[in-house]
Amino acid sequence: MKLLKKLTAAAVSALLMLCPGAVQATGEVPVKDSIKVDKIEFNNPDFIRGMDVSSVVSLEKAGVTFKTGGGEAEDLLKILSDSGVNYIRVRVWNDPFDSSGNGYGGGNNDLETAAEIGKRAADNGMKLLVDFHYSDFWADPGKQKAPKEWSNLTVTQKEQKLYDYTLSSLNYLKDNGADVGMVQVGNETNNGIAGEFEQKNMAKMFSAGSKAVRDFDRNALVALHFTNPEKTGMVKYLADFLNKYKVDYDVYATSYYPYWHGSLSNLTSVLSYVADTYGKYTMVAETSYANTLADTDGHANTVSEYNNNTGSDLLWDFTPQGQADEVRSVMAAVNDVPNGKGLGVFYWEGAWITVGDTTGKSGSSYTKQYNKNKALWESAGCGWASSFSADFDPNDAGKYYGGSAVDNQAFFSPDGKALPSLNVFGNVITGSITDDYILGDVNGDGTVTISDATEIQRYIAKIKDFTPIQRVSADFNLDGKINISDATSLQHFLVRVF
Ligand code: CA
Hints:
Layout: H1 9-16, E1 31-32, E2 48-52, H2 56-61, H3 76-83, E3 87-92, H4 111-123, E4 127-132, H5 155-175, E5 180-185, H6 199-216, E6 221-226, H7 232-244, E7 251-255, H8 264-278, E8 281-287, H9 320-335, E9 342-347, H10 363-380, H11 397-400, H12 424-430, E10 432-433, H13 450-460, H14 468-474, H15 484-497
The structure holds calcium ion.
């Protein structure tokens, strides 16, 4: 009896003339890929595998083209959807422009920009999380400045203004083709929102925004977004405070940057507290991880050599594989929140790449590229801040404006081509393997024989379980499932060949 050696998937398909159609992502059979991802058993079937791509429109204005991993130019939103991303997040600033119409940068993310991204997301089957900052530029724990237009309002007037603005903005997004599934009332609002810093006034702003979302669409989820999950007392304080003031919300969202925000087990634990105590959904609204420590645009990165690149909580390499590992790990940590109360994870600005690659350049050639980039950050608003932001934030953005501090945390290389790590968003459903395998060689002895068919039968009878590589080998008819047809096909194949 002649033994078959090195039987490849392609060879088998050709021999058997199989017509498997589209492979079902049942999760039973992993995919073969250049990154390895362990499958997650999601407790919530609609688990959000989301991404914030707020800067995309400004990048395109600056000439950036996004491409598939194979190098074909394609709409970023389609590339993301095809890779397994199922939800898009976009920030909204009320008026990120000075009186002459110059953009503050950071994507110049006004409502019109959000609408364009929202439509492109919907066109590719993805819902939108609208992230209202209720400011004219970046809002975070250190900055919660009210929009220029709201600066002289009383608390009561601001309450009404925030309600009206939220409702009219959501209707605008919907009318322009976005599929709004969730709304963030504020961004990283630990210490304040829209220029209000007292608990009772913050609660009024949250409630006004929430009411607007309810009046917009009862099915849209209301999310409140905070950060510093590593401070367990802070999370309890915030959730208790929201309860005390009877703020109506669905989702407690947090940022989770592993450089600063503690362990994954702590993340699961603090989110579980909110879920168990108050019955809320929880999620990570922002996370990211560097796939390299190199910079590619001339603006220093948040994570670089000697900066945020060490620490006990950094479990992953600074490679595309490490980036995928981080995303998978954060998703698993949120999925571990009991009773399906872990709603999902959004990756922050996964496409904020350079507008001109400075890699390998030095001296005058570097300076020339840097100056070109700088001009684009100013004119297209695709850096984190432009010089015009001094109009609103003179002490920080107005002084330290520049390019992307996260180009090494994107899922795209400097030329716009998708990195292998982008596939993590789909691969978490099926799992993926990187090892070579022989289709049909389930017992891994290097040959395909009748004993492999027997192994498949034992698996189907639940007498034994398979490793990921055994599963992919066992799916002999390539339909994404392992069942009796695989054993039968394999037997027929052996009969024909011998
Ligand atoms: Ca940079």
